[in-house]
Amino acid sequence: MEIVDCIKVATFLQKEYVGKNVVINVFSTLDKIEPNSIVFVKKYSDGLVEKLNDHLDILVIAINDYQDKLKCSHILSANPRLDYLRVIDHFFINIEKKVGIHPSAVLEQGVELGKGVFIGANCYIGAEVKIGRNTEIHHNVVILGRVSIGRDCYIKSGAVIGEEGFGFEVNEEGIPEHFPHTGKIEIGNNVFIGSNTTIERGTIGSTVIEDNVKIDDLVQIGHNSRTGKNTMITVGTVLCGGVIVGNDCYVAPHVTVREKVVVEDDCFLGMGAVVLKNVKKGTTIIGNPGKVLVK
Description:
- Helices cover 10% and strands 31% of the residues.
- The longest helix is centred in the N-terminal third of the chain and has 13 residues, at 80-92.
- The chain is mainly beta.
């Protein structure tokens, strides 16, 4: 590994550093600060000032509140965590990108694959699936039906994309009859899909996941729903059929959104919220039933 120091980190981030030019061998956390490491701090406290100043052989990426208060080398940043992860990824992480198809994977005739696609062990890819370049599909993933997946996506093990949704109509004898799902799934570019997440295909139209959406493990995305650009959906969330979530939203763990509810752009749905009504742009919803948090 190349020698990393404060000059290289500051040059990479296009920011100035204050202090001596320390050599950085590793990254660490505030709980256990290692010698010659890089750490970040995004909240201010006098206690953290004292703790950081006990280590003169580290580089700290810190919010502007720490200006003129640190003896150790430091870089001031509006978003220390973002800069920290970029430094780690650039200087310390060396993961060779996976490419190719595992021998145990089943790809039906008609599948369309872009360049640089990886498909892991025991996957099943149906005949009408299209996968864009440089997308990684890890082990035991099932994708079937009319599914299009963009470039640079990352799908973790155990995800199921394209199965029929849960749609029934009770007949004259009181027996639920299944509504056939003949629709599609459209997944954009740079989408992240977690382990054991399920995305149902549309009944007649499409289920849509737009560019840069990040979906955690154990999430259920219902048929005919739409998730807007840059939105993050975390573990245990259920989006029922026909739900629309706008751009730049954050959905906390174990949220449930009722069918056909519309959540507009820039909303925050708090942990465990049960959302039964449409949500206006920029709103925070908490509780069960979900209510607007008045700041």
